[in-house]
Amino acid sequence: MSGTGKKIVDVAFKASRTIDWDGMAKLLVSEEARKEFSSLRRAFDEVNSTLQTKFSQEPEPIDWEYYRKGIGSRLVDMYKEAYESISVPKYVDKVTPEYKPKFDALLVELKEAEEKSLKESERLEKEIAEVQELKKKLSTMTANEYFEKHPELKKKFDDEIRNDYWGY
């Protein structure tokens, strides 16, 4: 296998070991997201498996003598010469250095968005719990009990009454 091909396989293999699939799966909320995530993981595993099997092996050497016996020495020598004259240029990665800073900036932005999202999610969970608690108590709650939890509304109503504003 060429040095570049081996390097690609090694990088893919290392990447597969460093991905925290279980950690990412725990962050998913909806069933649709879980399905998409599992199909992504399946696709990644298939590609990784293909890289490990097909591209990690050296090609079998050509048995030129076998072909000389069946076809003839002159034609086989011509093919052998042409085969050996082929040089595959070494791959030079010009794309990664260009996009690496952009990718790193996106990762930072992603972490910030994740933190913001987690804080917002926590706030919404608290609000949901408060609304559910209020829903349970609403049928038996007095106005004073409600105003204890929402003093800003009590102040607003008191101001309206004091200013003789009755909403019409």
What does this structure look like?
The protein is an all-alpha fold and 168 residues long. The protein has 8 helices and no strands.
Would you summarize the structure shown here?
The chain is an all-alpha fold and 168 residues long. The protein has 8 helices and no strands.
Structural class of the helices, strands and pairings?
A: mainly alpha
Estimate what percentage of residues fall within beta strands. under 5%
Shape: rod-shaped
Helix content: over 70%
What's the count of strands? 0
By DSSP (H or I, 4+ residues per run), the number of helices equals: 8
* Succession of helices and strands: HHHHHHHH
What number is the mean pLDDT? Answer: 83
Q: Radius of gyration in whole Å, from Cα?
A: 34 Å
Most strands sheet: none
Low-confidence stretches: none
- Note the gap between the termini: 85 Å
Question: Notable features of this structure?
Answer:
8 helices; mainly alpha; rod-shaped; single chain; 0% strand; 168 residues
Summarize the helices and strands and which ones pair or pack.
Blueprint: H1 3-18, H2 21-26, H3 31-54, H4 64-70, H5 73-85, H6 96-137, H7 143-149, H8 151-162
Helix pairs in contact: 1-3, 4-5, 7-8
